[in-house]
Write a structure and sequence with these properties.
Helix content: 40-55%
Order of helices and strands: HHHHHHHEEEHEEHEHHHEHEEEHHH
CATH class of the largest domain: Alpha Beta
CATH superfamily of the largest domain: P-loop containing nucleotide triphosphate hydrolases
Distance between the termini: 71 Å
Strand order of the largest sheet: 6-7-8-3-9-10
Oligomer: single chain
Number of domains: 2
CATH architecture of the largest domain: 3-Layer(aba) Sandwich
Number of helices: 16
Largest sheet: 6 strands, mixed
Number of strands: 10
Structural class: alpha/beta
Length: about 450
């Protein structure tokens, strides 16, 4: 059984590292210094009091968040090993040898990443890189100097993810309309270490019935996240209404009014077209529908999508275009008012892709809303009414860079092709022009006007 002294010693390791008086004083001075430094960097000074976490916050002040995560985790591991060593106590044992080896490896990683954080601090505070030596050997000294000397001021503030550095939110909330789709997304977040990561922010739009809308954006801009937020699959902090009905509050009911066709279908190759649609009808159509009405609806949908000639064919024997039409037909069975399709023309040649898009155009013309993601929009752009452009801002958050007609988009971006528009908002490291922040800001001003 561990003694009281061992337990106290373990607590000392947990909160202060080595427990010698001098070391404790230096740690206390470092905490005081970090208190002032954190305040300068625009984050909560009290974080300096939290063991382990203060290293992570210091890394954020340095613009080295990834390194901060590594140091945080290695701090936990090394402290856990130290505490385990106290309780094991058998010097020279194989277990202690293993723990010693692991500790050495962890400390090496800590040193490397701590140096990176120190160099980041030098960059943020505009100081010579040689300061990293003091940060590595006696961190309490630079922490006190940098924390309280007026000569040491950071060039940037820590982004605490409660405000956007652009400060370009439209502050626009669109009133829910009785017809059409109204989208008011304040944010869509996911847990990310000790904070929330924003995937989407400040997206407001109204799409009228009989519209075919192109959803455009580079890789990682948030297109899939947006459509999942709209259809309720992944809920955001938002108000989404379709024909006056709240999608989130009436989710079970709205499932039949929203059709979503993913890029990859999940159809079984050894089923026939008719069998596939009958199975889909059992899931998508109301339970109180008679068997005859269900059969009639399946026949009607096969006729709409040109599948009657192949209704007894196996899915595995269908052409690419037929298979695409079948996956769309499955969702169309419930006669949804909103139809969302993720790359329905993927893998199709130009002729087949256009034929499929023309069919979607006819669906939109029947009074429905059709939203399409495609990586080859220019070959069918004449079939679309409006364009949604999503872009990653400087914090890699999906934002609305534009929503309006095709002609308005061409004028807004000063580009004729959709490919050029995507290139304009893509980051430079992705082969783009890196103008996302500029267009997000301009569009926010347009919305606010």
């Amino acid at each position: 059984m561990p003694t009281v002294q061992q337990f106290i010693k373990a607590l000392m390791y947990l909160f202060f590292g080595p427990h010698e008086v001098v070391i404790m004083i230096l740690i206390a001075l470092e905490i005081v210094g970090l208190f002032g430094l954190f305040k300068k960097c625009g984050t909560k000074p009290g974080y300096a009091l939290i063991p382990f976490y203060r290293s992570y916050v210091l890394a954020r002040c340095a613009g080295r968040e990834t390194e901060g995560r590594v140091v945080f985790l290695t701090d936990l591991v090394s402290t856990s090993i130290a505490i385990l060593n106290i309780f094991v106590g058998a010097e020279g044992s194989n277990l202690q040898l293993i723990l010693l080896t692991v500790t050495a490896a962890v400390l090496l990683i800590q040193i490397i990443y701590s140096i990176r954080i120190s160099l980041g601090l030098c960059e943020v505070f505009g100081r010579k890189k040689a300061w990293w030596i003091l940060w590595a050997l006696v961190p309490s000294l630079p922490a006190l100097i940098w924390g309280y000397s007026k000569k040491f001021q950071p060039s940037r503030q820590v982004d605490d993810f409660r405000a956007d550095a652009l400060n370009t939110f439209s502050n626009t909330h669109i009133s829910a309309m009785e017809e059409g789709l109204t989208v008011n997304i304040e944010s869509r977040t996911v847990p990310d270490f000790f904070k929330r990561k924003y995937l989407l922010r400040d997206i407001h739009m109204y799409i009228k019935p009989s519209s075919m809308v192109l959803l455009l954006g580079g890789s990682g801009a948030g297109k899939t996240t947006l459509i999942n937020a709209i259809n309720g699959y992944e809920r955001a902090k938002a108000d989404i209404t379709l024909n006056g009905e709240n999608v989130y509050k009436e989710y079970k009911k709205m499932l039949y009014n929203i059709g979503f066709v993913p890029q990859q279908d999940l159809m079984r190759g050894n089923d026939t077209v008719l069998h596939t649609l009958n199975d889909a009808a059992a899931l998508r159509l109301p339970l109180d529908l008679t068997a005859e009405d269900r059969r009639n609806r399946v026949e009607e949908v096969m006729g709409i999508f040109g599948l009657l000639p192949v209704k007894n064919s196996f899915v595995s024997k269908l052409s690419g275009g037929q298979r695409k039409r079948l996956s769309i037909a499955m969702e169309f069975l419930s006669n949804p008012q909103l139809f969302i399709l993720d790359e329905p023309d993927s893998g199709l040649d130009g002729v087949m892709a256009r034929a499929l898009m023309q069919q979607l155009r006819e669906i939109a013309d029947s009074g429905k809303i059709v939203i399409v993601i495609t990586h080859t929009p220019d070959r069918v752009i004449d079939l679309f009414d409006d364009l949604i452009v999503l872009a990653k801002d400087s914090h890699r958050t999906g934002r609305l860079a534009f929503y309006g007609s095709i002609s308005e988009a061409q004028k807004f971006f000063g580009k004729q092709s959709m490919e050029e528009i995507v290139k304009a908002v893509n980051r430079k490291e992705e082969g783009g022009e890196g103008l996302a922040d500029e267009y997000i800001s301009r569009y926010a001003e347009v919305q606010h006007a």
